[in-house]
What does this fold into?
Amino acid sequence: MCHHWSIYCVCFVKYQYQLETDHGGLLTISLRHALGQEPFVERGRITIQSINSQSVALQQSALSNADRDKLKALAEEDGLYRLEAVVRTHDSKETLFLTFVKACALVESRMSDVVTLSLSQDNNIVAVSLSTQPISSCGSQVDQQHLRTFNTTVVFRHMEIGPVPDTATYVQKLEREREARERGDTKDNRSFLAKYWMYIVPVLIFVLLSGAANPEGAAGGGAR
It folds into this structure.
């Protein structure tokens, strides 16, 4: 079931692979996070058992008191909470994705985040993104007791095929118009000025230039 969330994410894709969870092999996603400038450390693991039934198993560790302090300090600094997702297939192929949200949004959601797996038409994972639920404007105070464990939802999102332009029909129309012009079947319904403006404009310019070049003759003719 899909909802709309406020998403702050950037995804970097190193490799692509096809999901094999419905062909006899499990797929695991190792989650590692960074609190500020700290190095990435283990956060948990997602095991995808079936892509068709969207069956997943999620294991995550609780935050220590020190990590909760770091997360709250990062939120107060308006910093970014970064998440690294390492996807590993049963034959040891790996894909690395990096995504992030505002730390204050994660804190004010009381650790309720959403990991979205974007899939191509061939069930290739093309992106992993992180978001928070619900939408937060950042500024509320949250007690540390609400920052112990992650309440994570895993969402599968399939890529949709957009409309394809009917180029064949357009090309055929242009071809028919070209053939009609060659046969002389098409009528020119333009006005007289639209048809012959390229002849009229030079004549007008010549008349104007001639009058400007001989102002004395024009004045003398007026005196008589």
Q: What stands out?
A: The two ends are 96 Å apart (CA to CA). The helical segments are 65-76, 103-108, 167-183, 192-213, 215-223. Residues 27-158 form one domain. The first helix runs from residue 65 to 76.
